[in-house]
Structure formats: C-alpha cells, structure tokens
Amino acid sequence: MLAFRIVILAAFAVAAIAFPRAAIAAEESCPGLVARRGLPIVPASLAADAVQLTYIGHSTFLFETPSGVRIATDYNDFVRPRTTPDVVTMNRAHSTHYSDNPEPGIKRILRGWDPAGGPARHDVQFGDVRIRNVVTNIRQWGGETTLRDGNSIFVFEAADLCIAHLGHLHHTLTPEHLKQLGRIDVLLVPVDGSYTLDLDGMMEVIASINPRIAIPMHFFGLSTLDRFLARAEGQGFTVERRPTPTLTLSRTSLPPTPRVLALPGR
Known about the structure:
Residues 1-25 form the signal peptide. The protein is mainly beta and 266 residues long.
C-alpha cells in the first residue's frame, strides 16, 4: 500500500523568480500531449486530473495515473517498488539503474539505450499515459570516454502534466534537447554532483528547463542533499522538505513559481 497522499496546494505565497527559458516553439505545451484524451478512464482512487508520485529511493520513482497504470523509473535489482509496476524505464550508467531480471508481471520495458547501438527511440501510449524519451550521452565508467546516446531523459505525459526524469545525466542540454522536451511541469533531478553532472551544471539544466517543481534524487546521504538544497535556495528557489515520500500532483495545483520539493526515500 502506498503512503498517504499529499496534495500540492495552488496558493503558494512566494516571491517572483526569473529564470531564463530557452526560446523554443514548444514552450506552451508538452509536445503531442494526448494522454487520457479520448480514452476511457477506469475508476481509481485518484482524481481524473491527478498523478501520484512516490520516491522509492536512489533514482526510482513510482507513478500512478488516474486509470491505475503504475510506472517505475530507473528500475533495478536493488531498489524496487513494493508493488509490481505495469511499465518500467531503465538507464545503463550503473547496475543501480537497470535490471536484467525484471519481474514477470511487468507489461512493458523501456530501455534508455539501444543494445544494438544508436539512440533508443520510444514514444508509447500505455493506457492513459504517453511515455517518450530524449537521448543524451554518458561518460564511460572509470574513464573520460563518451558513450553516445547512453542515457535517456524519459518524459511522462498524463492528466495534462509533463513529468521528466533526467536519468543519469552527464552534461548540460542543447537547444535541440530543450525543444524535444518541450514544457516540463515536474523535473526529477540527480543531485549527487559527481557521478552525474556537477551542481553548477545541474542548476543550469534546471534553469533551462524551468519546471514548476524540481524533485531531487540520486543523492548519497543527507549531506549531499543538503548541499544541493543550499545551492537551490541560494539561486532563489523556495525549498520544502516533505515528511513522506508520496505526492499527488495536478496541473491546477502547481506552484506559481519554481519550487524544490525534497522527499524522503526508503
């Protein structure tokens, strides 16, 4: 059973924050947002305009859509949801981001790299959620060699929300990356500052995407998380520490200015 839900209220009294946004045509909408339009909604415990998000730990989150579709990010053998997801995404930087032994009940497995070589290409409609990816490069473990197309930023479009998981991001984003991403409402951000992108670079990525909510992940203890939160506060973000790992998100309840929400992971 997932932890009780916390509804993000729309009325946040915060100072205006001006972050630069890339001049892209897709700014006003998430490209091809078709999730749940024209699709029957199976009765579920969520409202039709809400998505539930639970931070499981490391880089793994569990989403539940209004029709009850469950999705796990960076699914691996070490940190898993207690319930079997319908769909999983994976990345390949380390074994804590993928699994060669997924649970048999999983209906769809989306790898952020193509084992045959070249970029992975995903644009999948599963129930009331659309899942697509934007490929990036990674550094080879133990060296400076670049592995092209080794990581995917997965974008989940459901209930008129666009949620992006940066995966094991190793570099800042180009205008083409930002164009492919389009409008992102909620951004899941690796904040370790070493294995992925350094903190200066990651803050640049957050500013360029300009989400309404940024949620840190991939941190190693509270000291690593605290370092990121201090940096975010220093750059004008309102920072909240939530006591439970579960949020209920809806487009109407997004804060009016960018905000960082830190969730505890098990």
